[in-house]
């Protein structure tokens, strides 16, 4: 399997290369040269497989020759062995039509663990074959940070620098990052928003002084391997609800467009998906883009669903690439315009291509709280604010055939956002025992102004060069 950049100018890479590369050198995102396909019979044969086995089947065409099938199965078994539920991503029914797919049974209580537990192992596997040292630079609005740190803390040949917007993550999210005191972990709180942090990370991939010295790698969903792992749970849910003989719709609380793009990939691979509902909070650039073709960023407004307080959704570029017939030159021009003006208008062709599978909804604070209350009163389920936004969109979706089940992705454990949950439902969900004495532990975090120069200097001073020698 070869991977190409959405902007057409970077060298194509194999799976190992793309996992270690992160962002393409032309500023684009890597995607498979062609979408692998499963036949109806191949999908039918997946019914009932244990999660780790299903994961190995779905990932195999993306991994290509970079891992043997046996090694891939060993890695998926190890990655999903740390989940606190035997089903890894259990499905729960709320009423005759609505379901939630619980993606928060990993070590850090959010869906990010599903991909990052695997990515940590892939880094270790591929680094074991080389001399190189990796410098992971990531941006987080709260959940990617803790999941990535958990996945790589204490591992040899890796340093991780994680940027989060100061004061804009929940206490649980912050402590899950800052109480990890392993020497290869650096937490940085910046003045600014997640978008500012993400822009700095992307800039570092194109900073020759940094990439010349350090092996900069990504743990955000700009890294293809992240999305590959997320495709699996769409299959897992749909297979339980009757796929491939029955279509299923998914409602996805969306920020950086990674999770819902994984659903798109599942559909391109042959999974019968009726619709992907993109649910946003009031930071609604994606709702405006999908409903009116207007992809223009405005100022980020902090909300009770902070992980979705995002206005520049990196993975939307991957969808736009497909939606313009993979015309890399046209897409590069469109994205350069967006990078310069923070606004772009989708072409009619792109809008038509996207409308076949996607719809969208915007959810405000009142609607979110109401969805939380409904889930609790109707089904006894306590949902986190992000999941509640997805559920609101699922319950208000128009024109879905009556026999299609709707699965909302439950992206975080409610205890991560305990104050918002208590305000809406009166329930204060306890932290699961697996996170331990989070509020007793010492924190370590540096604070930096929100400028690229400050962050680059901080990383350059502390990171290990790709040669692995500090004196290099
Ligand atoms: C809890 C939670 N829900 C939803 C999202 C949005 O997912 P994505 O950025 O993949 O669209 C995030 C952050 O990414 C998150 O942490
Ligand atoms: N909500 C995310 C934002 C980063 O998204 P990613 O999926 O691209 O890593 C977070 O929790 O950090």
TrEMBL record:
MF-aspect GO terms: threonine synthase activity
PROSITE patterns in alphabetical order: DEHYDRATASE_SER_THR
Under catalytic activity, the entry for this protein gives: O-phospho-L-homoserine + H2O = L-threonine + phosphate
Determine the domain of life of the protein's source: Bacteria
Q: Per its UniProt record, what Pfam families does this chain match?
A: PALP, THR4_C, Thr_synth_N
- Quick one: which pathway? Amino-acid biosynthesis; L-threonine biosynthesis; L-threonine from L-aspartate: step 5/5
Q: Which UniProt keywords apply?
A: Amino-acid biosynthesis, Lyase, Pyridoxal phosphate, Threonine biosynthesis
Q: Which parts of the sequence belong to the Tryptophan synthase beta chain-like PALP domain?
A: 89-334
Q: Which cofactors go with this protein? A: pyridoxal 5'-phosphate
User: InterPro entries, alphabetically?
Assistant: Ser/Thr_deHydtase_PyrdxlP-BS, Thr_synth_N, Thr_synth_N_sf, Thr_synthase-like, Threonine_Synthase, TrpB-like_PALP, TrpB-like_PALP_sf
CDD domains found in the cross-reference section: Thr-synth_2 (cd01560)
Supply the EC number(s). Answer: 4.2.3.1
Residues forming the Threonine synthase N-terminal domain are 2-80
Similarity-based family: Belongs to the threonine synthase family.
Q: What is this protein called?
A: Threonine synthase
Which organism is this protein's natural source? Novosphingobium pokkalii
